[in-house]
Write a structure and sequence with these properties.
The chain is of the alpha+beta class and about 150 residues long. The chain is about 20% helix and about 30% strand.
C-alpha cells in the first residue's frame, strides 16, 4: 500500500509563503479555522498559538496548501492528497536547496508562467536552454528557495 506524504518547507513566514505557492501552483491554502475554533472553545489551544490571516485563523508557525481537486478533512482543512506544508524555523535559509519544485507551464507557455511567477514575488536567477533536452528558468520564491519554471 502506498504511503501518504507531504513536502514540508522551512521558512520564516509560513502564511506568506503558503499564499505565494498556492497562487503559483493554483492550489488552495488550507483553512483550519473550524478546528481552531473547537480547540479554543475546549481550552486545548491558547489564543497566543493562533494567527489571523486573510480572514482565517491559522496555527502559528505552520500553514498548508493542497491541490483543489484532492480530498480533504472539512474540519481541519488538511488535504489528503497533493500537499505542501510551510513550517516556520528560527534560522534563515543558507546555501543551495537539496530539493526543489519544478513548475511546468501550461498552454500559455514558459514566458507567461515566468511573468506570472514574478508578479507573485518570485525572481529569476538564470535561464537554462538545452535545446531539445529542455528549456527552463531557475527562480527563487519570496524567501529565496530555488525552484525551476519549465
Amino acid at each position: 500500500m502506498p504511503l501518504h506524504w507531504k513536502l514540508v518547507i522551512d521558512c520564516t513566514d509560513a502564511p506568506a509563503l503558503a499564499e505565494f505557492w498556492a497562487a503559483a501552483l493554483e492550489y488552495e491554502v488550507e483553512d483550519p479555522s473550524p478546528l481552531i475554533e473547537q480547540l479554543l472553545a475546549a481550552g486545548h489551544l491558547p489564543e497566543s498559538a493562533v494567527v489571523h490571516r486573510g480572514g482565517r485563523r491559522l496555527f502559528g508557525g505552520a500553514c498548508g496548501i493542497r491541490h483543489p481537486e484532492d480530498p480533504y478533512d472539512t474540519t481541519s482543512g488538511v488535504g489528503h492528497g497533493r500537499r505542501l506544508l510551510f513550517q516556520e524555523v528560527p534560522e534563515p535559509k543558507s546555501g543551495k536547496n537539496r530539493l526543489h519544485l519544478d513548475v511546468h507551464s501550461g498552454p500559455a507557455g514558459l514566458d507567461a508562467l515566468v511573468a506570472r511567477l514574478e508578479a507573485l514575488g518570485a525572481s529569476r536567477l538564470h535561464e537554462v536552454d538545452k535545446g531539445p533536452a529542455g528549456h527552463w528558468w531557475v527562480m527563487r520564491d519570496p524567501e529565496g528557495n530555488e525552484f525551476c519554471a519549465a
